Description:
two-stranded antiparallel sheet, mainly alpha, about 180 residues
Amino acid sequence: MLSKCVVEPDMNTFQKWLEDASDWRGKVAPIAQGQIFYNQRGCVACHNTTGAPGGTGPTWKDMFGNTIPLADGGTLVADEAYVKESILDPQAKIHKGFGPPSPMPSFKGAFKDYDIEAITVLYEVNQRQLSWTRCEAVHGARSQSRQSPPGMRRNAASKVSRPRLMFGGLKIRSLS
Ligand code: HEC
């Protein structure tokens, strides 16, 4: 089998290609990308989305927006900032019963901000047990329709803002 090999002239051009290739925005829906990270970056080894007890890490079911007890005796409400901090610096605030120290490795440098947003969307969605297939059934992940309901796929030429969906107070953000 013959394959095509592209040789970039210098390291900068190669780095640029690498960055473009790993930028999923506009190609994959945020929630689907969150699911890919969940499975491929090993979150699934310690976190479940079913609520089953006994995992190495806390379940992601029904966590977003709810009160989390902390190992130091305090509490907090799980929001976007907490998800981000937990991913970058797991020792900062430790979920009661899971340390200290937290066995979770830091993913600092492993994710861009928009990657973390995709994970957060997944985390949010598990709070309401909304399955992606339900959104997809209505909107069509591959559709570029500008009619209502709008397609999820980004239409680069479109000036129309991406859909923002509301499900009983749950906001599913859509990245452009
Ligand atoms: C080796 C096991 C392990 C892996 C792998 C792991 N985590 Fe964790 N995670 C934990 C543990 C244990 C906690 C609870 C202790 C703490 O607060 O740090 C936690 C806490 C969290 C929290 C805070 C949630 C809460 O209920 O307090 C988030 C968000 C999170 N992890 C995201 C991720 C993401 C995203 C990945 C994959 C990129 C991941 N984790 C991979 C073990 C893990």
